[in-house]
Protein: Lectin/glucanase superfamily protein
Organism: viral metagenome
Amino acid sequence: MKRFILAVIIITLAFSADCFALNLRPYMQTPPEVQVFAKRVIEDGGKVVDLEYCQKYTRLSKQLIVWSNGKFVGDANMGVKLNSGVSVQTLYDLSGNNNDATSGVTVNNQPVWTKNVQGGRAGMVFDGNDVLKKTLGAAIENPSTVIFIGKQTATNSAYKVGFDGITTNRRNLISYNTGVNGNLMLFAGASLISGFNVINVPLLLTAIFNGASSDFLKDGSSIVSGNCGAQGIDGISVGDDWDTAYPWIGSIDSIIVFNIALNSAQRQACENFVNAYYSIY
């Protein structure tokens, strides 16, 4: 039986009942706690098989472990082995915290698992009617960091939201405005906008939601900094905004969410790892 994985990961560094702690090394003063969201799809449409790919740890830096396994977002043969066209019903929470994000009950509301989306790797393709949502067991407050890997393919004049919260006043939005040179925007109570043409361009975006000290990076380099507000989120929306008004059209390869503002070393370690896997820049 084939096993496929796409990761949407929430990394939590503060202890809570909804998380589990990784025992890293004796010298680690505060071992990270992790909530892991991962899409697991098999040929019949998406039931969890086992946790084979989550048994080992990959060290990205001396102070931070992000993925449970180097193969967590796939393996070298995934783009060849994967059967395209399987609808994505669930983003499974592999931490055991019962935070599985789900889509609509019909295939029309589910993104499609597609091979060779970016760098020979598989990913989810959203057609404008798809969204996956989940209310989290523990809220993620400001400051936080979101790493988003995807590509927007729509050319109509509208916002296209790849990631958001689930309520109107609790948002961590990452959006493209395809009508204004593909502007990139963060929103957590205030708008932080960078003019950048990103239509049909694969991007690795890092959003540091940190009030007036927020930063938005493209492919490892800052494109705009300033105030995007200080809201946290109580849940996640992937492929649309909180009220499903501005759906994503294009691919989403991976999303990683931290409940801290990563420092430069941590951020670069994550970006380098993701870029090496997806060959984005």
The domain at 4-278 is CATH 2.60.120.200 (Jelly Rolls). The chain has one domain: 4-278. Helices lie at 78-81, 264-278. Residues 40 and 46 are 6 Å apart (CA to CA).
